[in-house]
Amino acid sequence: MPPSAFISYSWDDEAHKEWVRRLAERLRADGVDVTLDRWATVPGDQLPAFMERAIRENQFIVIVCTPRYKTRSDAREGGVGYEGDIMAAEVMTRQNHRKFVPVLRTGAWLEASPSWLTGKYYIDLSGSPYAEQSYLDLARTLLGIRETAPPIGRPMATINSSTSREPEPSQPTASSDFDDIKITRIIVEEVTEPRNDGTDGSALYSIPFALSRQPPSEWAILFLDAWDRPFHYTTMHRPGIASVRGSTVTLNGTTIEEVARYHRNTLQLAVDEANRRYLELQRKQQQLREREMLQREGHRKKVEDVSRDIKFD
């Protein structure tokens, strides 16, 4: 299931409401199930009940902060004030601080953040246009794919023992057996047909791409990770639609027009990144093999040296 998020904001003016709508649309395009009041309510609905459900049932609350939002929240005015009461109560009773993600839209942070948000790590989307890296920070936070610390290794794993006096392993070059993999063409004859039955996504179909050769399994994993989390991408990027089977990459759920306008560059980026990371993986594996070989040779030499001094007569 995709992560869910509710956007809390004040109706400052039509331009601000439109900005919030576009942000919600982009997050949904990037895999976040966003709830927005203008999409989820109709005349006759109980708005307090809707706000309570939205705040309590969604995994995240994205709080779009402006000076007007702060004023209404601190004064407990209108819907923003009511939402502020519910959110502050959740933080106090459940200590779930990371559920509430502040976003700065206009003004300085101290002028735009409600009192209960002071001191929180916020995401700055105040530019016009806002910084792409800041949006990436927001998207990765909601998708749960922020950068994490690498695993902890063995003590002194990267440091040679000073007593072994063994030479530092040389930096091997990447294996000459691996040539970069490339996308050679669209396999036109295997492109599927859209259902076009009026349901969501029925206009989309699958498009396969031929690779220059069948990649190693590790390369396929690296490619899929690079596709799902590219360094840069368009608003039409869709994580999770790529697959690799044999010497074919397939985008499941797109159109040929989207490939031409958006996905071609991202595919190329993902292939290049998979090639680079696979070569780096080979280099590290080679380093590990050489280090292990040196350790074995050093151990055997030590055993042989000490054995010469052990007498049994």
What this model shows, in words?
- The chain has helices at residues 14-29, 37-40, 47-57, 67-74, 78-94, 109-112, 132-143, 217-228, 256-308, and strands at residues 4-8, 33-35, 60-65, 100-104, 123-124, 183-186, 205-211, 242-245, 248-254.
- The protein has 313 residues and is an alpha/beta fold.
- It folds into 2 domains: 4-143, Toll/interleukin-1 receptor homology (TIR) domain (Rossmann fold, 3-Layer(aba) Sandwich); 183-300, no CATH class.
- The strands form 2 sheets. The chain has a 5-stranded parallel beta sheet, with helices on both faces. A 4-stranded antiparallel beta sheet has the order 6-7-9-8.
- The protein starts with a strand and ends in a 5-residue tail after the last helix.
- Residues 162-176 have low confidence and may be disordered.
